Amino acid sequence: MRWDVLAPDALREAAAAHAIEPGVGRTVQILDGRIVGADEQALRLLHMTWDELTGVTSTDGRWQACASDGTEVPGDQHPAMVSLRTREPVHGVVMGVAAPTEDGLGTFVWLEIDADPLTARDGALLGVMARFRDVGETPVGRRATQSVIRSYRRAAHEAAAQGERFRVMVEASSDVILEAGGEGVIAWASPSIRDVLGFAPDDVVGHPVVDLVHQLDRASAQERVDAVITGVEASGRDELRMRTVDGAPLWMSAAWRMLTGTTGESYGVLVSLRDVHADVERREALAHMAHHDGLTGLLNRDSAYAWLRAELQAAHEQGRHVGVLYLDVDRFKEVNDTHGHGVGDKVLASVGDCLTAAVREEDMVARAGGDEFIVALRAVPDSGAVERRAQAVLDNVRALSLVEASDVRVSIGLALDDGSSDVDALVERADSALYRAKRAGRDRFSW
């Protein structure tokens, strides 16, 4: 028995009490599991040198072991470690041990192992001795080999059956599944990509997965792929626009997952895509409805006030001014009473179009309710600019030609912010000016 300097004399004395048996290797481990003693037969059976074996524990990652039925045996379940933990002998355990070799191929041997705790004269636990012999050519070893072969055959059959189930599920699924390698290049695509995006699976293999993303979302998709492949993110989920074969955007939910090898290294990314285009359009429609008037498509009153609050704040910080036009349709009640609400709605929608056409893209047009509208002018230099815009509104409305209701006119109240951020006060000034325009004869603007 050869000993490491870490082995105390009491441990060596306790080990000497176990008789040497022909063909049996012996190792001794201290309380933390490290091997501190081994004989030449142990080195031969394990195909290791003294320097390779000493200091190694049963939980060392270089060791791989399996039970006689082929199941993996974790390091802490090796007989020596169990004996150390329980302070009880563990005998007759047949275990297949794979050990590393210099050529990198490794070696495998069936061992029958006995492990006995080693104690001092006062009963204190000092370590454990493992005794083992090669049983590969014995009936015990042959039965273990046959058992492992049967186990592997079952595993292969189950893997094949699982693979077939996976194939059937993938082919039946409407989700698009893509497997991409370490450079983000597609190595495999599920058949459903033909029905969803219009591409044949073979047409996308060999191309970067981000090529299937619409250009509007391609940059963010590339960031996600890079993060998953490099291990910054193990997985993620996004909603993005993919590209159909004719170039149209299609909203899809994308689930990204890093693919890893047996040692944990990343070798690619798995992408699962589900069509959510209808859901996204429905959400966008609901969001639009929450902020817009259903009849005219303009902003509603709440959204208009929110726009004004933000713009007044920005205008004061930047030394700009905001102009407001508050208007309603002249004699609109008569239109409804004479021609009906259907014609009234058409008049309101047409007036809304006239307002939008009369202002700049950066300005705001909203329906305040009923036949009343608000126009907010961004960055106006003076009151003259507000009046010119109001005159453009009057001209557009006067030019309306509606068969059902002729001579549609509007009255407009004007206001220019005075440096205050009070939206209500600004709109109230414009509303008061509107009534002055009404009293002055309608179809005009007034301050």
Polypeptide structure, described:
The chain is of the alpha+beta class and 447 residues long. The chain folds into three domains: 143 residues, 2-Layer Sandwich (Beta-Lactamase), CATH 3.30.450; 108 residues, Beta-Lactamase, CATH 3.30.450.20; 155 residues, Alpha-Beta Plaits (2-Layer Sandwich). Helices cover 39% and strands 26% of the residues. It has a seven-stranded antiparallel β-sheet. Strand 14 and strand 15 form a beta hairpin. Helix 11 packs across helix 12 and helix 12 packs across helix 13. The radius of gyration is 41 Å and the shape is elongated. The mean pLDDT is 87.
Strand order of the largest sheet: 1-3-2-7-6-5-4
Tell me the quaternary state.
Answer: single chain
Our count of domains comes out at: 3
* Derived structural class: alpha+beta
Mean of all residue-level pLDDT scores = 87
Main beta sheet strand tally, sense and closure: 7 strands, antiparallel
Residues in helices, as a percent range: 25-40%
Described by the principal axes of the CA atoms, the overall outline is elongated
How many strand segments? 17
Write the CATH fold name of the largest domain: Alpha-Beta Plaits
What's the CATH class label of the largest domain? Alpha Beta
Please tell me the CATH architecture of the largest domain by its name.
2-Layer Sandwich
